[in-house]
Specification:
Layout lengths: L1 H25 L29 E2 L30 E3 L8 E2 L2 E4 L2 E4 L11 E4 L5 E4 L5 E3 L2 E3 L9 E7 L5 E7 L17 E6 L8 E5 L12 E7 L6 E7 L2 E7 L18 E6 L5 E6 L7 E6 L5 E6 H4 L1 E8 L5 E7 L13 E5 L6 E2 L7 E7 L5 E8 L2 E8 L4 E3 L1 H4 L6 E2 L2
Parallel strand pairs: 1-20, 2-28
Antiparallel strand pairs: 3-4, 4-5, 5-29, 6-7, 7-8, 8-9, 10-11, 11-12, 12-13, 14-15, 15-16, 17-18, 18-19, 19-20, 21-22, 22-23, 23-24, 25-26, 26-27, 27-28
């Protein structure tokens, strides 16, 4: 009986091997190509979870960063203006406002105002350090050096919202959005190409690279994440993207090596901070708590998003603080106003410039600004703050020096809220 079993099984085994051999010949195996995740050189490892603020380091760790030879007295400490003396100087039409292809020379940087050769004030505009210029008209159309651009047809149905040149003038980052997308009812398929794109202008007719995708809220899409501002680091690689998010605003760190479809731990994490100012070495940035229900904090976040250092806490200081930076002498400067809770009370009006050492009480440097702050940004040298204000007289643009002097550029701004510093 055992011999009979072997005689039946053996042919079956042989037949099975023959069938497998035929299948292997007709259907060769395909080894999938692995997805390449950006290296640390392209993107630092991101550790916090979405919408979660990382653990704050103690203030005391920064006490030793202060140069002991620098006096503690602020040269621009606020003093009430003498009756009859203006506290704000005007520079409209002044010879000292040296105009060139990059804008107005101010405090060692260039202030970009609307081009004078356009009849209508553009929605946005930017000129590179090499003189290349983009203009976005009020309908969302973009011209690059006077030639219409739509990403080789990729953005034919989208509106351009903002564009910014990298500091070296090679890369053009821009934001596009489908009309009515923010109503949140078009669905993800109709808006799948909305977000931040990057163009290498050193190669003619190059294909733009998709960096970060917008989302327009559930149930038609993922939770709200809509880009509205691009802030390049001086290394021509990293960018902080300001985004609208549920309940307010936030920031996302991206880089040239990132693609919108990349998947990695912590990638596209929304940080609950805004008003970013890059540090001089591009290895970190100074930010403040986004307006909302939380008390203000000024923090420094490392390039890898893994270390967050607390600089100022609005609760014990009884201040709302925004738009901070670290000055060259080691002090921190920001716009602020008194607040018993440390939270923003009302709107962003009634602010003044303050400066402080990390372990000392902030000192008010300027009188209160007239109007509601629409936006504010420090120049690359961190020597002057551009503030765009909404007032009863219309949009105003003013530059505040770290000495407390305020210069008016409202006439040159021509009512534009897109006035900005050249990178």
């Amino acid at each position: 009986m055992p011999s009979m079993r072997r005689s039946i099984i053996s042919p079956l085994v042989v037949l099975s091997f023959l069938v497998l051999a035929v299948v292997a010949c007709n259907y060769p195996s395909v080894v999938p190509t692995p997805t390449v995740i950006p290296t640390l050189a392209q993107l630092p490892t991101l550790t916090p979870t979405v919408e979660e603020a990382p653990t704050l380091a103690p203030v005391a760790t920064l006490a030793n960063n202060r140069a002991t030879s620098t006096p503690l007295v602020l040269s621009g400490t606020y003093r009430a203006p003498v009756a009859g003396q203006p506290s704000v100087s005007g520079n409209n039409g002044s010879d000292s406002a040296a105009l060139n292809a990059n804008g107005i020379s101010v405090a060692g940087a260039f202030l970009q105002v609307p081009p004078s050769d356009t009849e209508a004030v553009p929605l946005d505009y930017d000129t590179s350090r090499t003189g290349r210029r983009i203009i976005i008209d009020q309908n969302g159309g973009l011209t690059l050096d006077g030639v219409p651009y739509n990403g080789n047809g990729k953005h034919a149905k989208q509106r351009f919202m903002q564009a910014r040149w990298s500091p070296d003038g090679r890369w053009l980052a821009y934001i596009v959005e489908t009309p009515d997308a923010e109503r949140g009812q078009l669905g993800w398929q109709a808006t799948i190409d909305d977000g931040v794109w990057l163009l290498d202008t050193s190669t003619p007719n190059s294909t733009p690279q998709f960096i970060m995708r917008n989302a327009y809220d559930a149930p038609y899409d993922k939770p709200l994440r809509v880009a509205y501002n691009i802030n390049w680091a001086s290394d021509n690689d990293a960018m902080l993207i300001s985004v609208k998010r549920p309940g307010g605003t936030g920031s996302i760190l991206v880089g040239k090596g990132i693609h919108a479809d990349d998947v990695a731990n912590g990638l596209f994490t929304v940080l609950p901070y805004v008003s970013s100012a890059w540090q001089a070495d591009s290895q970190g940035f100074v930010v403040a708590t986004a307006p909302g229900n939380d008390p203000a904090k000024v923090v420094v976040i490392g390039r890898d998003i893994g270390k967050v250092t607390l600089i100022a806490d609005g609760v014990p200081l009884r201040l709302w603080m925004q738009d901070p930076t670290r000055l060259a002498d080691g002090r921190y400067a920001f716009l602020a106003k008194p607040s018993s809770s440390g939270k923003i009370e009302g709107d962003s009006s009634g602010l003044a410039l303050y400066a402080m050492w990390p372990d000392q009480t902030p000192a008010q440097v300027t009188p209160l600004l007239s109007g509601e702050v629409v936006s504010a940004a420090w120049n690359p040298n961190r020597t002057a703050l551009l503030v765009v204000l909404r007032t009863a007289q219309g949009i105003q643009a003013k530059v505040i020096g770290i000495d407390g002097n305020i210069t008016d550029y409202t006439t040159q701004a021509r009512g534009s809220t897109s006035v900005h510093w050249a990178r």
